[in-house]
Amino acid sequence: VTMPGLTQSPNVGKRHPLSITMEKAVDIFLSLGYDTVTECANSPEIETDYYCFEALNCPKDHPARDMQDTFYLTEDMGQLLRTHTSAVQIRQLGKRKPPLRIVAPGRVYRKDDIDATHSMIFHQIEILALDEKGKLNLGHLKGT
């Protein structure tokens, strides 16, 4: 039994341009020795206020914490959809010791009015390189 209109051709469908772009960017950092952090336990899209704001020294009155800018999931504003992937860096700093080099790609969420240049969901890539004093300098960043 077959489904009408569906072919078995491997040429059906294409990868989304965002997926291709993210993978290319991550591959660049992988080739430079960075570790990718994408697994749910270390890069959750549902985040806590601590990892998204507190641990980053974001003051309570910062505009990013406003209800109109952040998708809070609980009344006490303790859980939210992450607004950036910096929370991944905080989690990794708590688990690893230097030297470390990570790349943290992922979806992030903000309450933006949708137009040609804004969406409530967008993709972000952050990198973190940490080493002993004197072993990492601005020249290393230029090389990436």
Question: Structural class of the helix and strand makeup?
Answer: alpha+beta
DSSP strand content: 15-25%
Characterize the overall form: globular
* Counted beta strands: 5
Distance between the termini: 53 Å
- The helix/strand order is HEEHEHEEH
Strand arrangement in the largest pleated sheet = 1-4-5
- Main sheet attributes: strand count, strand direction, barrel closure: 3 strands, mixed
Low-confidence stretches: none
- Helical coverage, percent range: 10-25%
Mean pLDDT score: 87
Number of helices: 4
Rounded Rg = 19 Å
Plain-language structure description:
By secondary structure, this protein is of the alpha+beta class. It contains four helices and five strands; from the N terminus they run αββαβαββα. Strands 1-4-5 form a three-stranded mixed β-sheet, with helices on both faces. It has a two-stranded antiparallel ribbon with strand order 2-3. The longest helix has 15 residues, at 17-31.
